Each structure stands twice: as C-alpha cells, then as structure tokens.
Amino acid sequence: MAQRLQGKTILITGASSGIGRSCALEFARTAPRDLRLVLTARRTDRLREVAEQIRAEVGDGVKVLPVELDVADPVAVRGFVGGLPEEWRGVDVLVNNAGLVKGVARAPEIAENDINVMFQTNVTGLINMTQAILPIFKARPEGGAGDIINIGSIAGREPYPGGSIYCATKAAVRAFSDSLRKELIDTRIRVMEVDPGQVETEFSVVRFYGDKSKADAVYAGCDPLTPEDIAEVVVFVAGRRQNVVIADTLIFPSHQA
Ligand code: NDP
C-alpha cells in the first residue's frame, strides 16, 4: 500500500484537529517518502503544529504545505486551488473532511445561523472543494484520475432527535457522493465515503459552542473511537489499486451498534 501512495499529493480539509489531523499523520507514516500533504483549515497555528509533528516523526521525505482555507467560501476555495504552487498542483487525493455540528435542539428551535453554518460547511463546502479539484483530476488521461474521499457520518444513515440539521447535511453528503460516483463511471476518478460513528475529537466542543464540560459528558461512560481509527481506514481506502472502489465504509464503536 505504501508504494501506491508514494509520490502522491494528498489534500486534506479540516486538518487542524481530530480526524483530519490524524489522516495527515497516518498518510505521512504510511508513505514517508516523496509524499506531499496539502493541509487546510482556518486555524493555521494548528496546521503548523501538525506540519512540525510530521517533520519530527518522518523527516523531510514528506513535504507539507499548510494553507488557511474556509471551505464555505467558494471564492477562497477557487483562489486557493488556482493559486497552488506548480509542484503542489497535481493533487491525487482529496479528503473532504472539514465539518461540524452546532447546537443540540429540536427542529423548530434550531437557530438560523446554526442551520446555515452546518449546511455551508458540511455540504456546500464539500461541494466547493470537489468542484475546484475535479478539473485537475479530469485533465489526466483516459477521462481522468484521482480520489475523492468524503467523510460522512453514521448520522446520515441513522438520524437522531436533536440532530436533524446535522443528520440532513450528512445525508446530503451521502447522496452527493453516490451521484458523483455514477457521473464519473467512465473515468478513473474514485468517489468514496467513510462514515464514522462516535469519535472523540473537538467535535463536541464545537457542538456546545466551546463548553468543554458539556463536550466531555458526551463521551462519559462510553468508549468512543479515536481519530486514528478513522484515519487508518481513510489511508487504507486511498491505498487500494486504482480499480478497487471502497465506495462506502461505516465504522463505529461496538457500544453504538
Ligand atoms: P474536529 O472539530 O476535531 O475537526 C473538524 C475540522 O473541520 C477542524 O480541523 C476544523 O478546522 C475544520 N473546519 C470546520 N469548519 C471549517 C471551515 N468552514 N473551513 C475549513 N475547515 C473547517 O472534529 P472531527 O475531527 O470529529 O470532524 C471531522 C469530520 O468528521 C467532520 O466532517 C465530522 O462531521 C465528521 N464526523 C465526526 C464524528 C465524531 O464523532 N467526531 C462522527 C461522524 C463524522 P478549523 O476550525 O481550524 O477551520
């Protein structure tokens, strides 16, 4: 697998924490030579820490480009892709990971701003990135080549009370992934989705607007997955030979069955 990833350019959104950060580290550890990692998020200080950790662990064989990017801003996304330095432009794998949940409330009480932020990040942001990267993939021979790995959620399959908007965004990601895969059937562009269940990250801190005690309560008394558990699956999926499409993977802790 490491050989197949060698020489690739991997672009990860939301790489400043949680699953995205772990994906960056896992790609670097799996293919520690001639790999390029474009790491994006809004918190650049956190991206630089990830870049430093990679350098400390695997040395200079992995090149890292941290870039500030808000996926919900379509102009910024187009400018970012168009402005990538020449040697970074040949993106092979896009991991659409940036996402969030805001608030826990029954549908009639959800704040308008929270609805907008969730859709603009989880759905429109993911589509913005995909539209911006697809021309790079399509410029390759035989109709094009490249991998899009979308991070969905168990929430897109099993909606729960209090999470209607977040669940709806992840159901939208699923529909988008499935449609796009079919649209690209005559190419070597793979569209794959990894759907995590409960993973302990900063996700719940964001959900409760930074209230750490409420966030910690979400994981109390259960044994959630770690972001590394998801990163291992993402890297596995990306490392299959080109003809193997792992379209859809659901991964959750045993207590969540
Ligand atoms: P984290 O909060 O740790 O990470 C979320 C990442 O998304 C951060 O790096 C954040 O970076 C980034 N992000 C959020 N909004 C934007 C934006 N507008 N533009 C760019 N980047 C953004 O949570 P997770 O690692 O858990 O979440 C990663 C993905 O996994 C999400 O799509 C989430 O929905 C999904 N998921 C998580 C589960 C869980 O239980 N944790 C379960 C199922 C799915 P920054 O703030 O620096 O911009």
Task: Please give a structural write-up.
This protein is α/β, with parallel strands linked by helices and 257 residues long. The chain has a single domain (2-256), classed as Rossmann fold, CATH 3.40.50.720. It is 44% helix and 17% strand. A seven-stranded parallel β-sheet has the order 3-2-1-4-5-6-7, sandwiched between helices. Strand 5 (145-151), helix 6 (164-183) and strand 6 form a beta-alpha-beta unit. The longest helix is centred in the middle third of the chain and has 27 residues, at 112-138. The protein is globular. The mean pLDDT is 96. The structure holds NADPH dihydro-nicotinamide-adenine-dinucleotide phosphate (NDP). Residues 13-14, 16-20, 41-43, 46, 69-72, 97-100, 121, 125, 151, 153, 196, 198-199, 201-203, 206, 227 line the site of NADPH dihydro-nicotinamide-adenine-dinucleotide phosphate (NDP).
